[in-house]
């Protein structure tokens, strides 16, 4: 069989600029059609008000100089006042509409982004730094908003309309000057576009640096890391690392800003030179009688407006270009193909009746990485309990991840009652599995929610939650919490019902606020029981996987847990991983993995008799329970307790 890359690196190409622009516009329209239409219409109205004002001003000045009819003058002044009110008020309305569009487009973008990431079947994408960089840049709260593209496009359109009006005016008054002014816009545009390209490249380049900086920020502000940081005194070291990343990002941004300053200064000098020349020409023309006083007024306004519009067009094109680059990351993420091959019409997954078979399974996390599983062949019989044993790094958890189809085997197959699990719907496969992972999750949510995340159908089903909690031995603890199952299991958030107006005790030496507003923290073992309850909620699952389910439990709890598990797994297929060999001694089949290979298999008695790895590990553990300095065998009762509880 040919080798398949287990982790498909993201390979979706960046869409072309026109398709990015079309996609951004359609997303903004879909997010808020009314606000979009109103924003567009008002923006276009504001594009003509400066031209109208300038012409009205010319007519007013000419009327005063020529002593025109009083009624006409009043009408012109009224028109000028109306245009002034429009110029003054419309920007506020436009700004509000822009904000609303930003918010709605941001919401839709976020929704689509995380709908897309949830669609990935496996874990590979989340271990691909390039993908993670894109995902960060594509988030509306980090900087990307499709509306920036639309807003930029509209501003360009507005500036173009204003420009057309004033250029027409200038052509009437001084065509040479009009051409000169327009030509001065060409280097401006070229320079701005080149700057925006560089800026977009810089943002992409510093992406990984900023992600690392956020990693250190997260460490320095998380309660989980706070213990070790204080114990080992690593705060200064981590702060140094964080600042080093910030300095690297700052250096890249500074270099960009310096280039910006030089280019903008050059452009401003050019602009000043052109408008100075225009002013000299207009004064000379007025002196010779070629232009009226009103003409000079409108000419000066037109030069300023044309230059303003040109600079706005150049700036907005540059900003839109940059926004389009960021929007491209969003499109790459949301249109990325599946991370693992999926069938358009998946095979139905049969009810497990025979078992799960791994046939010559080889696996490595990436093509350049070492093999983690090397030709594993084993059968987990239906209704049986299979235990996996092995030293750290032997590949046990990896095997579990393949069973859940978080990755596909690089070679070989895994069959569920004869059906290759690559052929079935991964979500359906996972619905049939209950699991507690070695690195189980704890959620900053209520106790009920922490359990219900195992099966959201049970979110409002108190008896089911209670049964699962009872089986995991955590019910009494939860019942004793201030709000029972509704207690927030977190000290880092406020309870939903409470408001952040609770007294701020951060600066107070005595934080004895009786937990005002915040939830409670559970111990590590209690959190592990909660994770077990989450798995037990899936009491109808066909395969139960328990990867080190009792590592954090006290001896009595572990004993109770294994008794409960034995009861629970009757007639159910289960896969158990534990370094505490007493916990798995009564499994139907014990498989010893070493460096990705099955090196021993059999039941407890057979493996002890074989005097191999398992027997050696078991003897080592039992040794720890022998009275000091004796070779005497343990008393029968102690031996039983030892092997069962440790
Ligand atoms: N996501 C990953 N990417 C790359 N390598 C990984 C990844 N996860 C695990 N590995 C590597 O795979 C090997 C097997 O790891 P695995 O977690 O399966 O071992 P294990 O038998 O469960 O060990 P332990 O008893 O310590 O839990 C290790 O060498 C580890 O470095």
Automatic annotation (TrEMBL):
Subcellular location as annotated: Cell membrane
Main location: membrane
Topology term for the membrane: Multi-pass membrane protein
TM annotation in the entry: 41-61, 73-94, 170-195, 261-284
Recorded GO MF terms: ATP binding
Keyword presence, Acyltransferase: no
Residue ranges of domain ABC transmembrane type-1 in the record: 40-322
Matches recorded under SMART domains: AAA
SUPFAM superfamilies, sorted: ABC transporter transmembrane region, P-loop containing nucleoside triphosphate hydrolases
Pfam families, per the entry: ABC_tran
Record key words, sorted: ATP-binding, Membrane, Nucleotide-binding, Transmembrane, Transmembrane helix
Residue ranges of every copy of the ABC transporter domain listed in the record: 356-620
UniProt superkingdom: Bacteria
Keyword Transport in record: no
Protein's name according to its UniProt entry: ATP-binding cassette subfamily B protein
Organism (species): Streptomyces umbrinus
């Amino acid at each position: 069989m040919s080798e398949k890359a287990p982790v498909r690196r993201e390979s979706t190409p960046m869409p072309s600029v026109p398709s990015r622009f079309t996609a951004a516009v359609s997303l903004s329209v879909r997010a808020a059609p009314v606000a979009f239409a109103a924003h567009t219409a008002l923006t276009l109205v504001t594009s003509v008000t400066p031209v109208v004002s300038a012409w009205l001003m010319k007519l007013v000045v000419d009327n005063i100089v020529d002593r025109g009819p009083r009624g006409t003058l009043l009408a012109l002044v009224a028109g000028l006042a109306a245009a002034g009110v429009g110029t003054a008020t419309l920007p506020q309305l436009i700004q509000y509409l822009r904000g609303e569009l930003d918010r709605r487009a941001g919401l839709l973008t976020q929704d689509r982004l995380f709908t897309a990431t949830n669609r990935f079947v496996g874990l590979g994408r989340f271990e691909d730094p390039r993908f993670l960089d894109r995902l960060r840049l594509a988030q509306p709260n980090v900087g990307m908003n499709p509306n920036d593209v639309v807003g930029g496009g509209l501003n360009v359109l507005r500036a173009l309309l204003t420009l057309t009006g004033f250029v027409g005016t200038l052509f009437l008054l001084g065509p040479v000057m009009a051409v000169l002014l327009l030509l001065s816009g060409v280097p401006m545009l070229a320079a701005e576009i080149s700057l925006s390209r560089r800026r977009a490249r810089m943002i992409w380049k510093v992406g990984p640096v900023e992600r690392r900086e956020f990693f250190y920020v997260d460490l320095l502000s998380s309660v989980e890391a706070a213990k070790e940081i204080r114990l080992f005194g690593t705060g200064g070291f981590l702060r140094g690392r964080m600042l080093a990343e910030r300095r690297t990002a700052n250096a890249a941004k500074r270099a960009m800003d310096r280039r910006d300053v030089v280019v903008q200064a050059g452009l401003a000098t050019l602009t000043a030179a052109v408008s100075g020349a225009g002013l000299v020409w207009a004064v000379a023309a007025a002196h010779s009688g070629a232009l009226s006083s009103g003409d000079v007024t409108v000419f000066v306004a037109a030069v300023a407006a044309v230059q303003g519009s040109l600079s706005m067009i150049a700036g907005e094109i540059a900003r839109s270009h940059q926004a389009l680059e960021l929007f491209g990351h969003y499109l790459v993420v949301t249109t990325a193909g599946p991370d693992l091959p999926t069938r358009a019409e998946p095979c139905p997954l049969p009810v497990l009746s025979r078992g799960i078979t791994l046939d010559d399974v080889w696996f490595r996390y990436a093509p350049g990485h070492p093999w983690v599983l090397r030709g594993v062949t084993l059968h987990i019989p239906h209704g049986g309990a299979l235990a996996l044993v092995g030293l750290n790094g032997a590949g046990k958890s990896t095997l579990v991840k393949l069973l859940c189809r978080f990755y596909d085997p690089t070679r070989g197959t895994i069959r569920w009652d004869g059906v290759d699990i690559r052929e079935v719907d991964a979500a359906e496969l996972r619905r049939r599995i209950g699991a507690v992972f070695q690195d189980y999750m704890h959620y900053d949510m209520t106790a009920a929610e922490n359990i219900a995340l195992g099966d959201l159908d049970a979110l409002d089903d108190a008896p089911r939650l209670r049964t699962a909690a009872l089986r995991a031995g955590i019910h009494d603890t939860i019942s004793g919490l201030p709000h029972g199952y509704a207690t927030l299991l977190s000290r880092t958030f406020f309870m939903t019902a409470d408001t952040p107006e609770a007294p701020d005790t951060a600066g107070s030496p005595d934080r004895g606020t009786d937990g005002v507003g915040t939830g409670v923290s559970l111990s590590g073992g209690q959190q592990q029981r909660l994770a077990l309850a989450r798995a037990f909620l899936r009491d109808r699952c066909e395969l139960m996987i328990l990867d080190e389910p009792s590592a954090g439990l006290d001896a009595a709890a572990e004993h109770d847990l294994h008794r409960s598990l034995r009861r629970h797994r009757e007639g159910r297929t289960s896969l158990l991983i534990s370094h505490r060999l007493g916990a798995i001694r009564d499994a139907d089949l014990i498989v010893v993995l070493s460096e990705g290979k099955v090196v021993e298999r059999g039941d407890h008695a057979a493996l002890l008799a074989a005097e191999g790895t398992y027997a050696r590990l078991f003897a080592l553990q039992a040794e720890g329970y022998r009275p000091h300095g004796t070779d005497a065998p343990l008393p029968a009762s102690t031996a039983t307790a030892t092997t069962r509880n440790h």
